[in-house]
């Protein structure tokens, strides 16, 4: 019990250090992966995503649209809980697979957050280019993800790994 | 479909069912804000107990050195619903689920009360640490509490069955 608690804390510390120090590289990586998804929405004018410290700066390339600055570290801190939960059992392969799933959700949540930022946080530009339903949808997706979804995916990964470990 | 996937599907559906209404204006006005105000009042009392000269106005705890506004996401409600969704999705008796939901909600609100008071103290004395504590550290602790409580409870529920 005590050993498991210590492993949990050690995992949380490792996850926190990753979250704290990785953004210059990690944010660039998720920005690179999210950019092609955002090209689908022509209203965003082929946005270029650039990691800047703990944020990701979005600038349009192909037409006139506002720029946006997204705090990417607010989308990625679920990695701390992931590391803490998996450290308790110390099984590497399920952890690596779960990291891949969670990182994939970071890319998707970044894309959704940028859509939400353009839909609702660009003053009149958002009102002109997004319908009220679209605005509600994007902001709802963003908040649902940030309030509970980002932890639910960690919980789901851990639960699958737990129950498959138990079954073996 | 195996039991674990059934559980996850039920959990995801219940989570969406519980959490999405939090984004609507009437729920925010009549549920989220009164709860947040209650947490602010309780946190204010706790802070006054440890000799902090704070005033509470609605959802805001204020003092000359710092002020915190308890909003959606900081009142533990989303974590409570997360836990209740997991408990209800898990195959257990109704009595086990009711007891687990009640105890889980109580535990999360106690942890959340500690979160709000310590966040105020961090903001007052180490403001540069506030953002990291607010997001990464405390949010992780509150959700970790929910997950670990569920893990412990579900193991016992299976053992009893």
Q: Provide the helix percentage of chain A.
A: over 70%
* SSE series of chain A: HHEEEHHHHH
How far is the first residue's CA from the last residue's CA of chain B? 21 Å
**Helical segment tally of chain A?**
7
Number of domains of chain A: 1
Number of helices of chain B: 5
| Mean model confidence by pLDDT of chain B | 91
- Biggest interface, chains and residue tallies: A-B, 31 and 29 residues
Largest sheet of chain A: 3 strands, antiparallel
What is the helix/strand order of chain B?
HHEEEHHH
The fraction of residues in strands of chain B falls at 5-15%
What is the approximate shape of chain A? Answer: elongated
Mean pLDDT of chain A: 91
Principal-axes geometry of chain B comes out as elongated
Q: Radius of gyration of chain B in whole Å, from Cα? A: 17 Å
Task: Describe the protein in words.
- The complex is a heterodimer of chains A (168) and B (161).
- With 168 residues, chain A is mainly alpha-helical.
- Chain A is built from seven helices and three strands.
- Chain A has one domain (2-167).
- Helices cover 72% and strands 8% of the residues of chain A.
- Chain A has a three-stranded antiparallel sheet with strand order 1-2-3.
- In chain A, helix 4 packs parallel to helix 7.
- The longest helix of chain A is centred in the C-terminal third of the chain and has 36 residues, at 132-167.
- The model of chain A has no long low-confidence stretch (mean pLDDT 91).
- Chain B has a three-stranded antiparallel sheet with strand order 1-2-3, covered by helices on one side.
- The model of chain B has no long low-confidence stretch (mean pLDDT 91).
- The relative contact order of chain B is 0.13.
- In chain B, helix 2 packs across helix 4 (94-125), helix 3 runs parallel beside helix 5 and helix 4 (94-125) runs antiparallel to helix 5 (130-160).
- Chain B has 161 residues and is mainly alpha-helical.
- In chain B, strand 1 and strand 2 (60-62) form a beta hairpin.
- Chain B has one domain (3-160).
- Chain B is elongated and about 55 Å long.
- Helices cover 73% and strands 6% of the residues of chain B.
- The A-B interface holds A 8, 12, 16, 19-20, 73-74, 77-78, 80-81, 84-85, 139-140, 143-144, 146-148, 151-152, 154-156, 158-160, 162-164 and B 3-4, 7-8, 11-12, 15-16, 19-20, 22-23, 72-73, 78-79, 81-82, 86, 132, 135-137, 139-140, 143-144, 147, 151.
